[in-house]
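Q: What structure does this chain adopt?
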Amino acid sequence: SLTLVGGTAWEALVVRAGLRVGESILVHGGAGGVGHVAIQLAKAVGARVFTTVRDSNVDFARSLGADVAIDYEKEDYVEAILRETGGRGVDVVFDTIGGNTLARSPDVLAQLGRVVSIVDIAQPQNLIQAWGKNASYHFVFTRQNRGKLDELSALVARGQLRPHVGAVYPLADIPAAHARLESANNGLRGKIAIAVAD
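A:
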């Protein structure tokens, strides 16, 4: 439940964004497979963590270490971030959702901020606002390596990272697991695991 999502979060936050102690980050989709690991990793780095989640996942996101959990169905996250940061914005935006989150990322970004996305770009982006903030963009398709896994294992051993398995499906039910993943409001938190043996 940790290798792929953990490696992705490590590549995005540590390698690409270069997240540092005292910086701030917005993690879109903080209750998801990658998002829930990204919150914990950002806290382990020493960052202030904002995340967007549904109301039903606000407490879950806080239990992972999110400093501010924004219910994106009830509140505009751009307004919430600007209010919480005194108009400064965040140093890093981590997009695990896609859609208009990438287009709106410059709205919450501080000067010299970084945006990291792990989703496909479905439509052309207008980056004029990002240009005005001297922002940098990174797009991640992660590749695993031993070093990342060793770093993640050390965080687990220190109790700073706890992968969450939201559901377990038998090997024969992989189509049902995929269908659940692809459905809106699927009620999942964290990662789906597949039980290869009974």
